[in-house]
Design brief:
single chain; 423 residues; alpha+beta; Nucleotidyltransferase, domain 5; 14 helices; globular; disordered N terminus; disordered C terminus
C-alpha cells in the first residue's frame, strides 16, 4: 500500500484517479503521520525555508495629488482605528474572523474600495496582535496597554493589487478617487535594488514625513542555506565598548557616548527654555541622535558579518532579553543604560548574516565575563575592573571584553535564531 501511495506523488503534485487510490493514499498518509514522533513534529518548522525581506524607501513627486493623498490617508487610518477598536473589544485576533466581521461595514462606513478596506483590516489586526502579545508579557508594575489607534497622517498600506510600478520611475496608487500616478525619485542604489531580478516585489507603505511622501516598497526572496561550519566568532556587547569579538577587534563606544550626551543635554536645555523658537529647534533636532546610533550599528554589524564570511565562521551573541529589567543602575546612568541600542545591533547582525548565509547563535550570557578563557575558573574576583580580567587561579590576564567574547564563542547554543531577518 505504501509503494502504491508513493506513485501518486510526482513533482509535488498528488494525482488520484479513483476512490480506491484515494483510500490507499489516505491510509498511507495516516500511517506516515502516526509514525512521526513529537520531536520531529516540533522541529519541522525550524527546517522550513524562510524568506528574507528588505525595504526600499523611495521619495515621491506626487505632482499635485497632495489633497487626495491626504484625504486617503485620513480615511484609511480612521477605518483602521475603527477596525482595531472592534477587534480589541471583541477579542478578535484571527485574520479571517476579522475580515468577515468588518469588511462590508468598513466599505459602507468609510467609502473605501475593496483593496484599501482589506489593507486597513490587515494593518489593524497586526497592531492588535502585537499589542496583545505585549500585554501578555507586561510586568505587574507597567501600565496596561490600550487599543491601538492611528493618526490621520499614519501610513497607508498597499498590497500587490492596490499599487503597481508602471515604469522604472512611475507608480500607480489606489486612492479614494481612483488611481493616481506619481513619479519616484530614485537614487542609484534604490534603482539597482528595484530592478534586481533575484528579489520579488511584495507590498508597500505610503508614508508622509515632514511634508514629503515616501513609498516604502518591500522585496523578498528565499533565505539562502547557511554555511556548514563548527567554528564561531564570539561577540560581547557593552556600553563602554559597543562590541568586542573573540579575535580581539573592539568597537569603542566613546564617540557614541559623547554624541548622545551632547544631544541629551541640548534637549534638556531647550525643554527648560520652552519658547516657540526652542520648540522649533527641538523639532529640527528630533531623530538626529537615533539616526546617528543607527548608522554606527549598521557599520559594526557590516564589519562583523564580513569577517564571518571571510573566515567562514558562525557568529555567537549573548541573549540579553530582559536585561533592562534585571539590571539596575544609578540615576545619573539611567539614560545611558536605557538608550543602549543593543537590540537594534543584534537585529542588524541577524538579518545581514541571513543574507550572507552566516549562522547566528545565541548563548546564555551568565558568567561569561567572570570565567577564565584559559583555565575555565569562574570567580567574581577575576573581573578586576571594567577593562581588566585577571584569573585568580592561573594568573591569566586579558582585556575583559575579549575574554568574555572568547567564552561566548565556546558556550553551547541556548536558543535557535528567532530574530526577524527583515532588512
Amino acid at each position: 500500500m505504501a509503494s502504491s501511495a508513493k506513485l501518486l506523488i510526482k513533482n509535488n503534485l498528488v494525482v488520484l484517479a479513483d476512490s480506491s487510490q484515494i483510500l490507499d493514499f489516505a491510509t498511507a498518509l495516516l500511517a506516515a503521520l502516526l509514525s512521526l514522533d513529537f520531536s520531529s513534529i516540533f522541529c519541522y518548522p525550524l527546517l522550513m525555508k524562510e524568506s528574507i525581506i528588505r525595504t526600499i524607501s523611495i521619495k515621491l513627486d506626487v505632482n499635485g495629488h497632495e489633497a487626495i493623498l491626504q484625504a486617503t490617508q485620513a480615511r484609511f487610518n480612521e477605518a483602521a482605528s475603527w477596525i482595531a477598536s472592534i477587534c480589541w473589544h471583541e477579542h478578535i485576533t484571527n485574520t479571517n474572523t476579522a475580515h468577515h466581521r468588518v469588511y462590508r461595514e468598513t466599505r459602507s462606513r468609510f467609502g473605501l474600495g475593496s483593496q484599501l478596506a482589506i489593507c486597513a483590516r490587515a494593518k489593524a489586526v497586526e497592531a492588535v496582535k502585537a499589542t496583545r502579545k505585549k500585554e501578555q508579557e507586561r510586568k505587574p508594575y507597567q501600565k496596561p496597554f490600550t487599543c491601538p489607534e492611528f493618526g490621520p497622517r499614519g501610513s497607508v498600506r498597499y498590497d500587490e493589487r492596490s499599487f503597481s510600478l508602471k515604469s522604472l520611475d512611475r507608480v500607480s496608487l489606489l486612492t479614494l478617487d481612483g488611481r493616481i500616478t506619481c513619479r519616484m525619485i530614485l537614487g542609484k542604489r534604490q534603482h539597482d535594488m528595484l530592478i534586481d531580478p533575484t528579489w520579488q516585489i511584495g507590498g508597500a507603505d505610503l508614508v508622509w514625513k515632514r511634508g514629503t511622501y515616501y513609498l516604502n516598497i518591500t522585496q523578498h526572496k528565499d533565505r539562502p542555506e547557511e554555511m556548514d561550519t563548527s567554528d564561531t566568532i564570539g561577540i560581547d556587547l557593552g556600553i563602554v565598548n559597543l562590541a568586542t569579538d573573540s579575535t580581539g577587534e573592539t568597537f569603542s563606544g566613546a564617540h557614541v557616548h559623547t554624541v548622545r550626551m551632547r544631544y541629551h543635554k541640548r534637549r534638556q536645555e531647550l525643554q527648560r527654555v520652552g519658547t516657540h523658537s526652542a520648540k522649533r529647534r527641538l523639532k529640527k533636532m528630533s531623530g538626529r541622535e537615533e539616526r546617528f546610533q543607527k548608522d554606527v550599528n549598521h557599520k559594526i554589524s557590516r564589519t562583523l558579518v564580513r569577517k564571518a564570511v571571510i573566515s567562514r565562521k558562525a557568529l555567537a551573541l549573548e541573549d540579553l532579553t530582559g536585561i533592562q529589567d534585571r539590571v539596575t543602575v544609578r540615576r545619573e546612568n539611567r539614560y545611558e543604560r536605557h538608550s543602549w541600542a543593543f537590540y537594534q545591533l543584534r537585529c542588524f547582525i541577524a538579518y545581514k548574516a541571513a543574507w550572507a548565509s552566516v549562522p547566528v547563535r545565541f548563548v546564555d550570557p551568565r558568567n561569561t565575563s567572570r570565567t577564565c578563557s584559559n583555565c575555565g575558573h569562574c570567580d567574581k574576583a577575576n573581573r578586576q575592573s571594567q577593562a581588566t580580567f585577571l584569573c585568580q587561579q592561573c594568573g591569566f590576564c586579558l582585556n575583559a571584553d575579549v575574554n568574555a567574547a572568547i567564552n561566548i564563542s565556546r558556550v553551547p547554543v541556548k536558543v535557535p535564531l528567532a530574530t526577524s531577518v527583515r532588512g
